[in-house]
Amino acid sequence: MRAQPKASHYINGRFVDDERGTAIPVIYPATGEVIASLHSATANIVELAVEAARAAQPAWARLKPVERGRILRRAADILRAHNEELSRLETLDTGKPIQETLVADAASAADCLEYFAGAIAAFNGEYVDLGGPFAYTKRQALGVCVGIGAWNYPIQVAGWKSAPALAMGNAMVFKPSENTPLSALALAEVYSEAGLPDGLFNVVQGYGDVGAALASHEAVDKISLTGSVPTGKKVLSLAGSHMKHATMELGGKSPIIVFDDADLENAIGGAMLGNFYSTGQVCSNGTRVFVQKGLHDRFVERLVERTKTIRIGDPLDPDTQMGPLVNKSQHDKVTDYIAVGKAEGATLQTGGGVPSLQGFEGGFFVEPTVFTGVTDNMRIAREEIFGPVMSVLSFDSEDEVIARANDTEFGLAAGVFTKDLPRAHRVIAELQAGTCWINTYNLTPVEIPFGGFKQSGIGRENSLAALQHYSQLKSVYVETGDVASPY
Ligand code: NDP
Questions:
Q1: What is the pLDDT of residues 258-290, one digit of tens each?
Q2: Quick one: average pLDDT of 212-237?
Q3: Any catalytic annotation for residue 283?
Q4: What are the pLDDT digits (tens) for 293-307?
């Protein structure tokens, strides 16, 4: 199986390479086979990309917003027309099952492009009446923005960052995770086909050092990172030391709270979605599932029954519901956490093993895993595992569960399942989380802001909020009379 792109990087509307860069082998996580070989960007490649972006941006920012939007809209249509091949590419790159990539990856990027294509023409400043004189505000592009992506949703992350950046009149240099470098190149080709002028969306490959070189480049005005908290701290301090704008979309250990009166099957469905989708590699996953005592045992019984029916296997088979983890080191990390959970005294209800799948012996599979009897101070309840490992905790009262749900350094997401709507809103209001759901979990349509409280991040993606984060505000005071000068 091969998925070799024409070259490693995409700069100024063309594929380019520099074979002196460190090798990046691209591995199909279901088999462990190498499907492409790329090179990390050399200093020369980083310079070319930033320079192309810097040169192209001013003319792009001067276009009418509706004209920029028209190009994004065409790109959204092309993404949708190529959804099947892009989904296959994403499955090869990430190992996620094709039934997921067909609906959640290029399709999500297309939704995002379409949204910002339309929204930008209506994203205007304010008029301020000063009783004679007046003022107006205007949102202006920042200039060159750097996007750095994680490996769980590669083309979605590239779309979520590039669409608002480009709509607003910026140029972007995007660095995908070296684990999943392929689909951002495909997105770059789509943008070119849609008529995006050269230099406005550039892709450079590389490890963390390339991300750091981009984040500290003097011609870069903004950095948007999707990644872990430790990386976020490094990148934010680089941005701070150069006084650059920054958006940080980082990790989480989010709570799902299920009250006794919840609809049982929906609450279980939400908890499974929030732990097992994308083999648990989702930042907003609700990995601490708090279930009220009266429902706890029935919840666990049905949860285990339903979890056992999850079909693990060939990601390209449309019936497969769970693929492998992204690579060996993630596999080691997740299986280590499963061992930690057992050693800490949690009860392993189902899963916990490494399935043996014929033809996929070299893949990084792990069974969907449910622990019960988890307590708040166990490592599996405190640390982000980023794999299909659900911790179920029980609770008595509303006040108690709010305090326990908030007892974490993270604050990305939270969910509440109950039929008592006043309680749902009351509890959500108290939860320290940026993205919340009532009676569902993990739905992230582009129309609503996405991002975290506390260590889970700064800034927001999606919605009109993202346009604010890719622009700066100019205030203009207009005098209509004489200057009142004492001199
Ligand atoms: P990492 O933090 O390891 O990496 C994120 C990106 O940053 C990668 O492209 C990485 O490159 C790059 N990078 C690493 N070090 C540096 C550095 N010093 N300077 C600049 N860039 C650097 O995250 P993962 O890729 O492992 O992704 C998983 C994490 O992402 C989880 O914590 C998850 O919760 C979070 N995430 C958050 C989301 C959100 O929207 N809030 C969504 C999806 C994931 P390289 O890969 O080469 O090291």
A1: 999 999 999 999 999 999 999 999 999 999 999
A2: 97
A3: yes
A4: 999 999 999 999 999
**pTM for this prediction:** 0.97
Q: Report percent pLDDT > 90 for the chain.
A: 100
Residue 109: pLDDT over 90: yes
Q: What is the 3-state secondary structure (H, E, C) of the chain?
A: CCCCCCCCEEECCEEECCCCCCEEEEECCCCCCEEEEEECCCHHHHHHHHHHHHHHHHHHHHCCHHHHHHHHHHHHHHHHHCHHHHHHHHHHHHCCCHHHHHHHCHHHHHHHHHHHHHHHHHCCCCEEECCCCEEEEEEEECCEEEEECCCCCHHHHHHHHHHHHHHCCCEEEEECCCCCCHHHHHHHHHHHHHCCCCCCEEECCCCHHHHHHHHCCCCCCEEEEECCHHHHHHHHHHHHHCCCEEEEECCCCCEEEECCCCCHHHHHHHHHHHHHHHHHCCCCCCCEEEEEHHHHHHHHHHHHHHHHCCCECCCCCCCCCECCCCCHHHHHHHHHHHHHHHHCCCEEEECCCCCCCCCCCCCCCCCCEEEECCCCCCHHHHCCCCCCEEEEEEECCHHHHHHHHHCCCCCCEEEEECCCHHHHHHHHHHCCCCEEEECCCCCCCCCCCECCCHHHEECCECHHHHHHHCEEEEEEEECCCCCCCCC
Residue with tokens 């995409």: 10
Amino acid making up residue 43: A
Q: Is 161 a catalytic residue?
A: yes
Q: Is the pLDDT of residue 155 over 90?
A: yes
Ligand 1 within 6 A of 228 CB? yes
Pocket test for ligand 1, best of 231, 244, 287, 408 (most atoms within 8 A of CB): 231
Instruction: Write down the pLDDT at residue 464.
Output: 97
Q: Do strands 222-226 and 201-203 pair parallel, antiparallel, or not at all (unpaired)?
A: unpaired
pLDDT of 83: 98
Q: Cα separations (Å) of 60 from 141, 144, 172, 351, 441?
A: 10, 12, 12, 52, 38
Q: Is the pLDDT of residue 165 over 90?
A: yes
- pLDDT bucket at 347, cuts 50 / 70 / 90: very high
The alpha carbon of 303 and the centre of ligand 1 are apart by a number of angstroms equal to 31
Q: Whole-angstrom Cα distance, residue 140 to residue 121?
A: 13
Residue 145: active-site member: no
For 63-77, what is each residue's pLDDT tens digit?
Answer: 999 999 999 999 999
Ligand 1 center–CA 265 separation, angstroms? 34
Give residue for tokens 């895993």. Answer: 369
The distance in angstroms from the start CA to the end CA of the chain is 79
pLDDT at position 1 is: 84
